[in-house]
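tool_call: predict_structure(chain=1)
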Amino acid sequence: MLRFVRIVLLVAFEATVVALSLLALTGVALPWLGLAGAVLVGWLADTASRRLRWPWHRLVLAVAPPVAATGLVGLAFGPAPVAVWAALLPGHPQSGLVYLTVLCAFFLVWRGVRLAEHDSATLLSLAGKIEVVVVAALLLGPLLRAGAVPQRELLLGYVVTLVGTGLAALALTHLVETATVHGQKLDLRWTMLLVGIIGSVLLVSVVLTATLSGDVTLDAVVTVLRWLLLPFALVGAGLVYLLTTVFGDLIRSLFALLGQALAQMNLRPEPPPTPDTVPVDDSSLSAVVTLAQQATFVLALIPLAVLLIAVLLWQRRGRRVAIDEERESLDVGQSVLNDLRDLLGLLRNPFQRRLHGLQAVLAALRGNDPVTRVRRAYVQVLLMLEQRGLRRAPAQTPAEWYATVAPTLSNPVPLADLTAAYEQARYRPDGVDAAEAGRAEQAAQALYEQKDQIRRDDGGSV
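tool_result:
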């Protein structure tokens, strides 16, 4: 029952992310039940494919996206979804919206297929990425929607649903993981505490949003942000002025081609004709000031991106040379992407405690497949033994480490079973199944229960 509730919360969480981002960026409100149904179809297809044999398991995964897209299109555009598929042809009045709906359905099916692989570490990492995406959507939405205000009540409901389901799913995932190791259960007291904490966070968030949503406060916040970004915007405006002066004709032709392509997709109606305006003198300094005042937030991104690239290059220059062959690889593109990801992670939370050693290895084992479960159980036991003063040497093999630790245990059989399962998962992963992973976790639990009876080689208790 607990795992089913966790799946339901994850389905609602994934659907709300897409619904909130789409509403904030474009103002389009797709039916939430259809989005959640697409995630659920992906999860059901993944569950069925794990139980079926070739070629039926691949057939289920191939049929799931069209089924989810048909259902979502039917809920969004009418009771005859098959007829609406004809709107994907170019020139149809709703081709752009139907195409966007189909893409959302396919994306959510893919997220549903990966739903069972989430653990507490992956959910925490996913929540950080979604936080960045949602904030960016809320900031860029007014620019893409040309100032049009979306449905505020629906937007607030999506935000509350996103935060509530995300916190609840993270808490239940942690409880499911600790239940197999420490025997914790979701009793009434724990449930009331969980609901109280999540409700308090949502209540404080809604109150702060309502307090800061007044026109005067909002104008003050926007004014302060504009003054803070004005120096960067002036630099960005100067760069734009130089680019438009040198490559003006080329940029105008590219934007004309892009406008024609978007007009053919019918994503939005044609803008009404605007009256004649006084042309801006590009040869004067007033062009820079006008650009800085009208597009402060967008222009400020240009020097900030240049500054970010400069910091990245400086860190790469000052980084000490590693000795392993992975860092000496000639895959420069992948190295740059890894460095950029590390830099963005450092900027997102510069005061976060960095994990090292076995703790970093344990944090990297985020999957829920049998091989990852066995390796995670073995690393957890290694950490427990380190806390008891038994540290494994880097040169020791698992069998040598077992020979060292076995005399200190009152019952070394669980460690022998766990070591054998780990060696099979590490060197022969094809032969590891869910039953083997369950036995490895039971062996880890047995070692946890006898950790207080671990003896030193001299006979003393650790």
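agent: The first helix runs from residue 2 to 26. Proceeding to next step.
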